[in-house]
Design a protein that fits this description.
This protein is an alpha+beta fold and 256 residues long. Helix 1 packs antiparallel against helix 3. The chain contains 5 helices and 12 strands. The strands form 4 sheets. It has a 5-stranded mixed barrel. The chain has a 3-stranded antiparallel beta sheet with strand order 8-9-10, with no helix packed on it. It has 2 domains: 151 residues, no CATH class; 85 residues, Beta Barrel (OB fold (Dihydrolipoamide Acetyltransferase, E2P)), CATH 2.40.50.
């Protein structure tokens, strides 16, 4: 019919990101098969991505590859312009099942009721109504995407606050964890049992001068070549917290 609708779209990964991922997993001994899309840009099919994740399952690099693959993905949003859903492999996709809590679902229900009534009556949208929908649906999609992000940010911030409050009572204690992220400022470590994340600042890695290696998702000591890489298991000690800023500082636990 060509009538306006609300789509849940998910674009394919940016070519630069997908090439970086392919090059990274190649260094680990795995292959992500790339192909050219209609715009002659590098991309990977959903089948190729699934094959990669299956190949690394149960290996020491599973966590790292899964995390980096997730970060390679684009963010799903609402849009009046359909481009399909890369992650699900669908040419058409929308949110429909939760109209009591998601506004895009409610709008989709309303549009379907309206379009079905027109179909049964062998009628079409009036020019005025069609123009109204073409103006308002894009605004609804944009606002819904923005509010979804706001809600997600608020949820993440509230969880972080409670994590900081909890771990404040455990300053000085040591925990097993995994390096969940690496930046030029240091490494993020996620405690296994608690799923609480904090940072070991690079200034606290005192046995060497460490530099951030973006391509290998690691920091590397200049003199000794010691490396701290995403997915690596480490033992950390809770050094300090800041409830107001919602931050947790770790230090590497002393080895015995």
């Amino acid at each position: 019919l060509g009538y306006p609708a609300v789509y849940r779209i998910h674009d394919s990964p940016h070519p630069d990101r997908i090439r970086t991922l392919a090059a990274f997993v190649a260094k680990l001994g795995f292959k992500l098969e790339l192909k050219k899309n209609a715009l002659n840009n590098d991309t990977a099919s959903q089948k190729a991505m699934k094959h990669l994740l299956t190949e690394v399952k149960g290996t020491p690099v599973e966590f790292m590859v899964n995390e980096i693959t997730l970060r390679t993905m684009a963010k799903a949003i609402y849009s009046e312009k359909n481009i399909g859903h890369y992650g699900l492999g669908f040419d058409f996709y929308t949110h429909f099942t939760s109209p009591i809590r998601r506004y895009p679902d409610l709008i989709t229900h309303r549009l379907l009721f309206e379009y079905e009534a027109l179909r049964k009556a062998h009628a079409k949208l009036t020019t005025t109504r069609l123009g109204f929908l073409r103006r308002t649906i894009p605004a609804i999609c944009q606002n819904s995407s923005e509010q979804e992000k706001n809600a997600s940010d608020a949820e993440r911030e509230s969880i972080k606050l409670k994590q900081v409050e909890y771990i404040t009572d455990h300053i000085g204690e040591a925990f097993e964890g995994v390096i969940s992220g690496v930046t030029e400022f240091g490494v993020y470590v996620k405690i296994d049992k608690l799923m609480i994340e904090g940072m070991v600042h690079i200034r606290n890695l005192r046995d060497d001068y460490y530099k951030f290696d973006e391509r290998s998702y690691s920091v590397v000591g200049e003199r000794r070549g010691k490396r701290f890489q995403m997915g690596q298991r480490v033992k950390v000690q809770v050094e300090s917290t800041d409830i107001k800023r919602k931050t947790i500082d770790f230090a590497l636990a002393p080895t015995t």
